[in-house]
Structures are given as C-alpha cells and as structure tokens.
Automatic annotation (TrEMBL), chain A:
PROSITE patterns: ABC_TM1. Belongs to the binding-protein-dependent transport system permease family. CysTW subfamily. One of its GO terms (cellular component) is plasma membrane. The chain crosses the membrane at residues 12-39, 51-75, 87-105, 146-172, 184-206. It is a multi-pass membrane protein. This is D-methionine transport system permease protein. It is found in: Cell membrane. The lineage of its organism: Bacteria, Pseudomonadati, Pseudomonadota, Alphaproteobacteria, Hyphomicrobiales. SUPFAM superfamilies: MetI-like. Residues 13-205 form the ABC transmembrane type-1 domain. It comes from Rhizobium subbaraonis. Pfam families: BPD_transp_1.
UniProtKB/TrEMBL annotation, chain B:
Belongs to the ABC transporter superfamily. It comes from Rhizobium subbaraonis. Part of the ABC transporter FtsEX involved in cellular division. Important for assembly or stability of the septal ring. GO terms for molecular function: ATP binding; ATP hydrolysis activity. Residues 22-257 form the ABC transporter domain. PROSITE patterns: ABC_TRANSPORTER_1, ABC_TRANSPORTER_2. One of its GO terms (cellular component) is plasma membrane. InterPro entries: AAA+_ATPase, ABC_transporter-like_ATP-bd, ABC_transporter-like_CS, ACT-like_dom_sf, MetN_ABC, MetN_ABC_transporter-like, NIL_domain, P-loop_NTPase. The lineage of its organism: Bacteria, Pseudomonadati, Pseudomonadota, Alphaproteobacteria, Hyphomicrobiales. One of its GO terms (biological process) is amino acid transport. This is Cell division ATP-binding protein FtsE. Keywords: Amino-acid transport, ATP-binding, Cell membrane, Membrane, Nucleotide-binding, Translocase, Transport.
Length: 218, 359
C-alpha cells in the first residue's frame, strides 16, 4: 500500500470508530430508557399501561423493519435538520443512532424482563417506589446482561457503518467497497477485513470481560 | 369478633385484651371467579408469634400480601397499628411498608449488592446517610451472626446465611411487624431449626410481632404461640398451639398434623376389625398435667393389664400433650373399665376396633 493509501486507511479506521462509538453512545442513552419503558408498561410491570406499551412496541418494530440503507436515505431531511448537512461522517451518525436505538431497546427489554420478580416484590415490600425499583433492582440486577447486549449492538453498528459510505461518511467499509471491490485492490480489501475482525474481537473480548466482572450471580 | 368456632379457655381471652398490631375483618380477594380469600377475620397481637398454616393454594400467600398492600382486597378492613390501609394509594402505602418487614422463601436478596448493602437498602430508601446506614447494617449483621460476611455477595452464602441476611434486612428499619412467607421452606431441617431459633430469639429480645405462613406443622410447633389454619380462603380453626395440637377440630387440621402426631402403626391398622373379637384398640388424647401420669394410674386400675401400642407425651408451650394407642385384653369388663377410667381423667377416648388373635 502506498503512503497515501495508508493515510486513507488510518483516517477510515478512525471514522468507523467515531461513528460506532458516537451512535453506540446515543443508542445506549436513548435505548435503555426505551427498554425500561417497554418493561415497565408491560402487563404486570411496575407502571402497567398497555396502550403506551403497544404504541412504543409499534414504533420500535416500525424502525426495526426498515432496511438500514433505506433508513439512511429516508432520514436525510431529519439529518439535515439536526446536523445541518446530509453528507459526511457526522451526518451518518444520525441514521445509525436512530437504527440502533430501537435495536438496543429490545435487547435491554429482554435483559430487564429476566430480573426476578421476587426482587421487585422485596423492594416494594420495604417501601421503595418505582424509581427505587429501577435504580436499585432492575438496572443493577440486569447490568451484566445489559452490557452483553450493548456489546452486540456496537458490533452490529460497525457492520451498519459500512453502508454509511453511501452518503459520503467514509469509514473502513466504504474504503473496502470503493478500493477493494470497485478498483480490485485486493490488498486493501484483505487489510480492511483483517482490521474489522480484530476490532470486532477486541470489542467482544472487552465486553465479555466487563460482564464477568459485573456478574455476582454465581 | 364473629368467629365461626368457639373460643378456647382463659389464656386466649387474656390475649384479646392485648394491643392488636394487625386486625383483619371480613377480608375478601377474588382472582376472576375464584375466591383466594373468602371472608377472613384475624387479629395479631403485639409481641406474639402467630402461625398461619394451610396447604398450597389455600390463600395464605395472598393474605400475607394484603397486610403490606402488595395485594389489594376486594372487600373488608385491614388495620395495621390501628390504621385502616385498604383505601391507601401506592404512595401512601410506601411509608407504612417501612413499619413492616418481610422475609421470603427464596430470600430475594439483590445479587448485585453486597450483604451490607442489602441490609442497608431499606435505610437508603428512608434517606439515611451512607455512614449511618452501614453502621446500622453492621449491628444487624452482628445480631444475626454474620458480622464476617458484610462485604461478601449473596452468591457466596449458604441458604441459611442468605435467610439471615434477609432477616437482618427486614429488621433494618425497626419494623413493628415481621411477615415471614415460607421463610424456611427452601432450607434443610437443621438450618430450618437454626433460623426458627433466631426468629424466636428476635421475638423475645426485641418484642417483635411475627406473622409467619407455612405449610409445615413442625414450624408452627417449634415457634408459634398461636396458630390459625386456613383452607380454601377461610380461617377454619384458631387457638393456642398446644390446644390445637391436643384437639384438632377440623379434618384439614388433622391432616396437616398427621405427619407429626403419632398414629396407629400401619400393620396394626391393617388387622383392625369391627367385630368384637380379640384385643380392643383405643386411641387416647389428653392434654394437661395428668397426661404424664395417666398410664401409671391406668395400670393400677386394670387388673388384666394393657399394652401400649404406640404414642407418648410431648411438650408444646410448656403444656403436656399426650396421644396413645392402647391395646386392652378383651377379658370380662377390662375395656369398659379402661374407657371409664380414662374419660374420668379428662381424656378423649376413641374405640378404634379389635385385633383378632391378640387375646
């Protein structure tokens, strides 16, 4: 690879990392409360409200059923409103976050639903309110599982960010398509795939380590 | 009080004068069409240990959850320390629940918190500072004999230790009442005995009122002052433990007691016939000071002697409770004289039948 290529490679790597981390952070901050709301409003939940539960469920399903490449284009007006432009890395973070939020919300919902109901009952019996239950029971007890779900979300985002090249966001995926695939530069393709494998393995390893440290159930 | 059964002797009337921590009257709770609680009236007096026993599905779990508002009754009145709680909102119930500790069959400790954090949680909810609540948690862990485990996580503890943490946590906020929901059902017999001993100790030391539910008469016998039997959502029998053990009036109580009371050995029961041939088998129940000397007196009164088939005397709340099975030789008036002697001394005698070949 030429020095210019190497520079491009490094820039693409950081673009992928920034897109993944930024949209991952937003999906965590928005998806966890959404997941909590899905669990709390479900039948038998701590704030049972079936109408709100159905509405939230429908919104989540709606976003999750649109293919990401279409979401990327369909959300252009929204992106332009938020970022000021519909082109580039920062613009790609908007659709990535909007796609990852309902995805993580479902993951969080599953994790939170697994929390033993007896623990919620125990904290209610000691006079705790809903907020106490969320803060002292649901989130801490589900934390290892919430972290595992977030690890999966981050890795999914790395894959999705490859499509963000379609709106000029750059990133490793875009590099692989433009140079490796369209210009037949096999070295670039192999290098990109190798780096992505290492990146995915590193995130999974770090996630697993964290889960192990947080889990006191066994 | 409109009790469907007559009240026993003087001891109970004395208790009625004591302050009531819990007073239920006419409590109903239905799930769909099935009544889970069907008109329960029950009083728990200050400082006593009341055992509520019933089979699974009898409504005891629902009933105990009505006391801290985890379940809402459809009808009836529930008073905790004189205050009606049935109309209260969830927010109004929260401070009240801090007056009521609860322990559970599966302990329900938070796995992500250390032992001391678990014990301190009710105090955190009350808004205590970290320093004060950890100091209080240390005191309580000392009380339940787990001082060395403050920094451990519950997963590192045995079942008995977990329940001790559960008890410490239930006591943290200084409750007026402790509810125990099958607290020893997941424990082995030895650990069960130790946990019951601890509860009894706490009852004596702190004067804490305890309402425990169980399906095991053994638990009632070793710890309760009074027992109430619940069946199909109704209290069918209630009284001091020794009196219910000595004289169970309902079939359900007799069946719950069958595991721990002596009964006629299977091989004798199989040979029983109703025709008057051979030895007469009597079932004898007696409680009170005479229980221990009854047999000595009987052997003096019966020239033909008798055979003790099975049974003995046990002591419940310092009361002697006897249950014997006797075989009387059929010679002349032996059986009739035995029955007369036993009844004269206050025993309840039942002629169970005859065993041919034993004469």
């Amino acid at each position: 690879m030429s020095p210019v290529m190497i520079e491009l490679f490094i820039r693409s790597f950081f673009e992928t990392v920034i897109m993944t981390v930024a949209s991952g952070f937003i999906s965590l901050v928005a998806g966890l409360p959404l997941g909590l709301a899905l669990v709390a409003t479900a039948k038998g939940g701590i704030a049972e409200n079936l109408w709100i539960n159905r509405l939230l469920g429908a919104i989540v399903n709606g976003f999750r059923s649109v293919p990401f490449i279409i979401l990327l284009v369909a959300l252009i007006p929204v992106t332009r409103f938020i970022v000021g432009t519909s082109i580039g890395m920062w613009a790609a973070i908007v659709p990535l976050s909007i796609a990852a939020t309902p995805y993580y919300a479902r993951m969080a919902e599953v994790s939170l639903r697994e929390v033993d109901r007896g623990l919620i009952e125990a904290v209610r019996a000691m006079g705790g309110n809903r907020w106490t239950i969320v803060r002292e029971v649901l989130v801490p007890e589900a934390l290892p599982s919430l972290v595992a779900g977030f690890t999966v979300t981050l890795i999914t985002l790395i894959g999705a960010s490859a499509m963000a090249g379609a709106i000029g966001a750059g990133g490793l995926g875009d590099l692989a398509i433009r140079y490796g695939y369209q210009r037949f530069e096999t070295t670039v393709m192999v290098a990109v795939v190798a780096v992505l494998i290492v990146l995915v393995c590193a995130i999974q390893w770090a996630g697993d380590r964290l889960v192990l440290r947080l889990d006191h159930k066994h | 009080m409109t009790s469907p059964f007559p009240q026993a002797g003087g001891a109970e009337q004395g208790e009625n004068r004591r302050e009531a921590v819990v007073r239920l009257s006419g409590v109903h709770r239905h799930f769909g069409d099935t009544p889970a609680i069907d008109g329960v009236s029950l009083t728990v007096h200050k400082g006593e240990i009341l055992g509520l026993i019933g089979r699974s599905g009898a409504g005891k779990s629902t009933l105990i959850r009505c006391l801290n508002g985890l379940e809402r009754p459809d009808r009836g009145s529930i008073k905790i320390e004189g205050r009606e709680i049935t109309g209260l909102s969830e927010e109004q119930l929260q401070p009240l629940r801090r007056r009521i500790g609860m322990i559970f069959q599966h302990f329900n400790l938070l796995s992500a918190k250390t032992v001391e954090e678990n014990v301190a949680l009710p105090l955190k909810i009350e808004g205590w500072s970290t320093e004060k609540r950890l100091a209080r948690a240390a005191e309580l862990l000392d009380l339940v004999g787990l001082s060395g485990k403050a920094r451990s996580y519950p997963s590192a503890l045995s079942g008995g230790q977990k329940q001790r943490v559960g008890i410490a946590r239930a006591l943290a906020a200084g409750p007026a009442l402790l509810l125990s929901d099958e607290a020893t059902s997941a424990l082995d017999p030895e650990t069960t005995a130790a946990i019951l001993e601890l509860l009894k100790d706490i009852n004596a030391k702190l004067g804490l009122t305890i309402l425990l539910i169980t399906h095991e008469m053994e638990v009632i016998r070793s710890i309760a002052d009074r027992v109430a039997v619940i069946d199909a959502g109704r209290i069918v029998e209630e009284g001091p433990v020794w009196s219910v053990f000595a004289n169970p009036r309902t079939a359900i109580t007799q069946s719950l007691l069958s595991g721990i009371r002596p009964h006629l050995p299977q091989h004798v029961a199989a040979r029983l016939v109703s025709e008057p041939v051979g030895e007469v088998v009597l079932g004898v129940d007696l409680s009170g000071p005479d229980a221990g000397v009854l047999l000595a007196g009987l052997s003096g009164a019966l020239a033909g002697g008798f055979r003790l088939i099975h049974g003995g005397v046990e002591h419940i709340q310092q009361q002697s409770v006897a249950r014997f099975f006797l075989g009387i030789p059929p010679a002349s008036d032996g059986p009739a004289r035995a029955v007369a002697y036993l009844e004269r001394h206050g025993a309840k005698v039942e002629v169970l039948g005859h065993v041919p070949g034993h004469d």
